[in-house]
Write a structure and sequence with these properties.
Keywords: Leucine-rich repeat, Repeat. This is TILB protein. It comes from Panurus biarmicus. It is a single chain. By secondary structure, the protein is of the alpha/beta class. The protein has a single domain (about 10-210), classed as Leucine-rich repeat, LRR (right-handed beta-alpha superhelix) (Alpha-Beta Horseshoe), CATH 3.80.10. It is built from 4 helices and 7 strands, in the order ααβαββββαββ. Strands 1-2-3-4-5-6-7 form a 7-stranded mixed sheet, covered by helices on one side.
Length: about 220
């Protein structure tokens, strides 16, 4: 006999839709931003009874929900493994990111992200976007205060655009398992572009990393006999 858990009736609800509690967004550490199945999907699953009857939402209720979400006051947030399979889920995800004006530590691991260039995280000091689909540094969000950036297991093929972090306080950078890692004189090129960088891929800056990139990589001459 299949017995439902006491929480079964709440499994497709956002925490803002559950009454009699005062939990705000900045009190959540690993929220799920995905929405539940559509009414049609629930009907085919024979779970339409779990869907809360929709009602007309007033402007006051919308404002109260925005205040309860309170993403502006989040200092540390983990939004990894969100399984963003539909466009409306991605838009809801980005809506939350745009409100993170005070976040300092943010994890966005394994979300199939491709472009966050329209997002600005003015206070973010630590950002982990491992296991996504970024192909360029230009697709990252604006992070002027970044100190620790992890980009492992993306698809960044070249170091083009990395100089955008030259005037940031970036100290540690992880680029493991990106195609650019196999570029000739990879470490020298990264450190020459980021003179304030202290650690690359978990290895501190070494004396041989300080040598300027070989000019022959940029200027090649041919002799005509």
């Amino acid at each position: 006999v299949f017995l439902k858990l006491p929480s079964d009736s709440f499994k497709y609800l956002g925490w803002c839709d559950i009454g009699e509690h005062g939990i705000q967004g900045n009190q959540l550490r690993c929220p799920r931003v995905r929405e539940g199945p559509s009414e049609e999907e629930l009907f085919f699953r024979k779970e339409e009874h779990t869907l809360k009857k929709r009602k007309q939402v007033t402007d006051t209720e919308k404002w109260e929900k925005r205040l309860q979400e309170n993403w502006e006051n989040c200092a540390e947030l983990n939004l990894s493994f969100q399984d963003l399979g539909d466009l409306y889920q991605v838009e809801n995800f980005k809506r939350i990111l745009r409100r993170l004006i005070r976040v300092e530590k943010l994890w966005l691991v394994d979300n199939s992200l491709t472009d966050l260039s329209a997002i600005r995280l003015p206070r973010c000091r630590e950002l982990n976007v491992n296991k996504n689909h970024f192909t360029s540094f230009k697709q990252l969000p604006k992070i002027p205060q970044i100190q620790h950036l992890s980009l492992a297991e993306n698809n960044i093929t070249t170091l083009s655009g990395i100089s955008a972090f030259r005037h940031t306080p970036l100290e540690t950078l992880i680029l493991k398992r990106n195609p650019c890692e196999f570029q000739e004189r990879y470490r020298q090129l990264v450190f020459s572009s980021l003179p304030n960088l202290k650690t690359l891929d978990g290895i501190p800056k070494l004396p041989e990393d300080c040598s300027p990139p070989d000019v022959r990589l940029f200027y090649r001459m041919c002799t005509i006999l």
